[in-house]
Amino acid sequence: MRKNLYLVGVDGSEWSDRAVERAMHLAQQTDANVHLVHVITWQEFQPVMVEGIAPPMVDKKQIENDANERVLQPLINKYQGQSATLTSGYAWGDPVEVLHQNVKDHHANMLFVGRRGRSRFVDIILGSVANKLAHQTGVPIVLVP
Fold first, then answer.
1. CATH number for the domain that contains residue 113
2. CA distance linking residue 116 with residue 126, whole number of Å
């Protein structure tokens, strides 16, 4: 029988750190595994285009290494040696699409995401990653404040 898998979307924020903490706590109680996913969005690196000026080149490998060192590795180090198995990965793209696809690909049983402190009005107008995931993912989502 396969162990349950809890997938956690992480971005280096205190909210995602709390989501990892909750997932690890539950995983230890239920003998589940935890997989962290960091999504690197192109929006952070797309320059404003000005006619006649070439955009700077993006070093994807360097950005991926930075994301690993800044976001994933500190979490791996923090929870190393605990009874729940912790793995991690990153992907480029839209956070909703990437997390949804990871839930499907890894056959995750539950998804944990941190809740950023935006206003209800902004969430209504712009939507939120968590809200979009809740409508697409098909597994329970733990929204960690």
1. 3.40.50.620
2. 13
